[in-house]
Structure formats: C-alpha cells, structure tokens
Amino acid sequence: MAAFAATLLRGPTELREMRHLLTSWLGRTDATAVVRDAVLLATHEAAANAMKHGQPESPVSISASRDEAGGFTVEVTNLGGWKEPDLGHHGRGLALMSELMSEVEIQTKTSVRMLSRASPHGPTLLSETSLEIPAPKRMAVLKIFEKAAKAVSDRGTDSPTSEK
Amino acid sequence: MAPTTLEDVQVERPADGTAVVVFSGEHDMATEHEVRELLHSLVRWDKLVVADFSLASFVDSSMLGVLLDTNQQARELGKTFRLQLGTAAIVHRAFELCGVFAAIERVTTREEALVPGEL
After folding, report:
1. What average pLDDT is seen over chain A?
2. B102 Cβ partners below 8 Å, 6+ apart?
C-alpha cells in the first residue's frame, strides 16, 4: 500500500486533521487496534514536539510506511531542529513515544538511522548508517520504528482489519 | 495561530463546591492553555473537581501534563481531584503510560466520582 505523507503548518487544527488522515491510513492496514493506536499516538507526539520546538514558520513533514513484515516506520521532520527534552512535560511526550514504539531515535543535523531487515518475516535487525543530507532541508529527523515482531505478537488480542 | 475554544469541554455543577468537567472529542496542545486555566481555577474554588474523559476519543501528553499539575495543585490546597474514564483504549493507554493512574484517583462512574473525600 502507498505510504502516508502529510505536511503540517502551525494552525491549531493541523494536528487533529493529520490524526484523522493517519487513522484512515492505518485502518487500511491489517494491524491490530493496539498497534494502530500506538502508531497514531506516537506520531502525534512527535509532530506536536516538532511544532512546539521547531522554527515557527517551518512546516513539519510526516511520513509513515508499512513494510512487508508488518512493521511501521514513521518519520517526522522539521527544519528547526529539536529542543532537548526536559524531564517535565516535554520529556513526557518522548517517554510516551518510547513506550508505544519499538524504537525511537532522535537525529540531528545530517545523520539518520536506517532500518534493515534480515527477512520479511523474521526478526528485525537494525544497523547504523550515516547519511549526509544537505542542511537545511533536513536538519532534524525523528524516526520511529514499529517492529514487525511486536505487531505479530499483538495479533490474536484483537480482530485485524482487512487490508483494502 | 488562531484563538482556540473549548467547545468540547463542559462544566457541570452537580452540587455546591463540586465541579465536573466533561471532556468529549479530542484534546491536545491546541487547548492546553485554556484547559489548564479552567482546571486550576476550579480547583481553587471548589472542594471536589472531576475531570470526566468518558466521552473523549484522544488525549496527548500535553493534556496529561495539565492533569498531573492540577492534581498537584489540588493536593497542596487540600482539595480532591479525580479522573473519570470511559472505554476508549487509546485514552486509557495514554493515561496509563504517562503515569497518570499512579498519581490521580481514577473512577469509572459518576457516582464514584462524586463521593466526598478520599476514596
């Protein structure tokens, strides 16, 4: 299925509209409700953080894709760079993302983390790769990996939705 | 950013000194400031404040932070602050993962929510 993509400005309803679009996209996968909720909430938190701490006029772009093994990769990018999370409220959003997703990695400047898989249905393997991406097109990247293993383990606790 | 409104937040007054704030729909950082002001104002003037999320379909970490701060303020003032929750799994999960259940009294019915004093 096609990947999810959205670009947000700073309007008060932008996050809500993104959530509705992402909910619709997730509903077209066969992921369980538990996994869909996790991806939705974690993506919202990442986008909200980017809107709060990115440059005021810079848009926030969001992409989400589902791999053959059933995992999700979400990427949230802003042009303003990430503010280091406090232990208070801002840290709560990041903690929430970490609880909901298998892997959360904040990258700055020109380095991103790449995901590679040993086999479409086997365990997920992560490898570090540095990419040189010209600034300021991508100064900050947050990648969220939802491992297929987690999605598979959650099956059976909920009725899957047929992929359309 | 355009002004935000609290169209999905209603305050009920079931008894003197008691306020029930009913949250429906989705709640995120767009209304964080307004909700914080409302809850903190109610906690200052009322003995028992209930935040009813039974009808809410989404909450994020900014709203959970508001609730934790409100609970702290209520404790300092000797007031009671409770959460009433419904069945939306994503709301329940957000509360749980942010440690809200460990900090704030949680009930599932309005009857429980309105019991005076500590449960």
Report:
1. 67
2. none
Q: Does A99 touch chain B (CB under 8 A)?
A: yes
CATH architecture of A4-153: 2-Layer Sandwich (3.30)
CATH for the stretch B14-113: 3.30.750.24
Rounded Cα distance, A113 and A130, in Å? 7
Chain centre to alpha carbon of residue B118: 16
B44 to chain A, minimum CA–CA distance in Å? 22
In chain B, what are the domain boundaries? 14-113
Structure tokens at A88: 């208070």
Q: Which of A12, A38, A89 sits opposite B62 (nearest CB)?
A: A89
Q: Which residue of A26, A32, A60, A89 to mutate against B (max B Cβ within 10 Å)?
A: A89
pLDDT digits (tens, 9 = 90+) for B89-115: 999 999 988 889 999 999 999 999 999
The alpha-carbon gap from B61 to the nearest alpha carbon of chain A, in Å, equals 5
Q: Does A48 touch chain B (CB under 8 A)?
A: yes
Q: Running DSSP on this structure, what letter comes out for residue B1?
A: -
